[in-house]
Each structure stands twice: as C-alpha cells, then as structure tokens.
Design goal:
The protein is of the alpha+beta class. It is built from four helices and six strands; from the N terminus they run ββββααααββ.
Length: 150
C-alpha cells in the first residue's frame, strides 16, 4: 500500500535519505541505513514515530524549506544550514541588527527554533521500526509516496 510522504529532507544520487512519511497511517521520521560493507545506501529505513506536535513542527520546517527555495533569490535570507551556523555564534538580535530587521529574518529564526526542537525530539526518541522502502513520485516531497515492505 502506498503511504504519503510529507517531506524529503535529504537525498543523494536519487536515493531518498530522510524525511517524514506515514507508516500504517501514522507519521514517522524515516532515515535510510547506510551499508559500510557495500559503501552505499540501502533500501532499508529506520522509522521513529512522531507525536502530533512534532509532526506539525516537521511540516512547518518543510514548508519553510519550500518557501526558501521559492524566494531565496529575492529575500537574501541564508540557507537554513548557514543560518544555523551563524545563530550558534550570534544572537538573533545581533543578526537582525546586522542584516536589517525584517519579517524574513523572523521566519528564518522561527524555522531555526523549530529545527532545534525537532532535532532534540529525534535524539531523545530512538527508531522503533526497521523496514524496506520504495519511493515513487516527485523527489521534492510534494507528490511523493512510499511503499513499506518487510
């Protein structure tokens, strides 16, 4: 049975690495298992169940990413990874002063804070399921599906 994929947070060489998708109708964070022996990604994934509030945060992070992709040339807000690097060494207030206060910087900060909470949840909650996954549809997560196997 095909399940809904909500985000494709990382992919490499057309292998979907991590994101959020349903498993048996419930939202899970999926992470691909890398084979050291084969020196390649597998078709196996570790699934971590997401609470409703963390699932909502994950979707907000994904929507921010799509927004950033669509507007990055206009807004001049740094990529979320670059923003996170800056935030680790500078306060939001100092970044806001340096770059000029704007709604865009507030959105970037909110996304940064959401990502911190999401990442902390994943650190505290171990994956519960190991399963094979076959993804289909668009790689951008907008019309993507997964079929989970054994």
């Amino acid at each position: 049975m095909k399940e809904k994929v909500y985000s494709v947070d990382n992919y490499l060489d057309m292998t979907i690495i991590e994101g959020i998708a349903d498993f048996s109708g419930q939202p899970y964070y999926y992470a691909n298992i890398f084979s050291e022996k084969e020196d390649d990604w597998t078709d196996e994934y570790l699934l971590t169940p997401l609470s409703e509030d963390i699932f909502k945060l994950g979707k907000e992070i994904w929507n921010y990413w799509l927004y950033w992709l669509d507007t990055s040339n206009e807004t001049k807000i740094p990529h979320s990874v670059e923003y996170a690097k800056e935030r680790k060494i500078k306060s939001f207030e100092s970044l806001n002063i340096i770059n000029g206060s704007s709604e865009e910087w507030v959105k970037a900060e909110k996304n940064y804070q959401n990502q911190l909470v999401f990442d902390n949840y994943l650190k505290l909650n171990t994956p519960r399921i190991k399963v094979k996954g076959i993804f289909s549809g668009k790689i951008d997560g907008t019309e993507t599906f997964v079929e989970w196997g054994d």
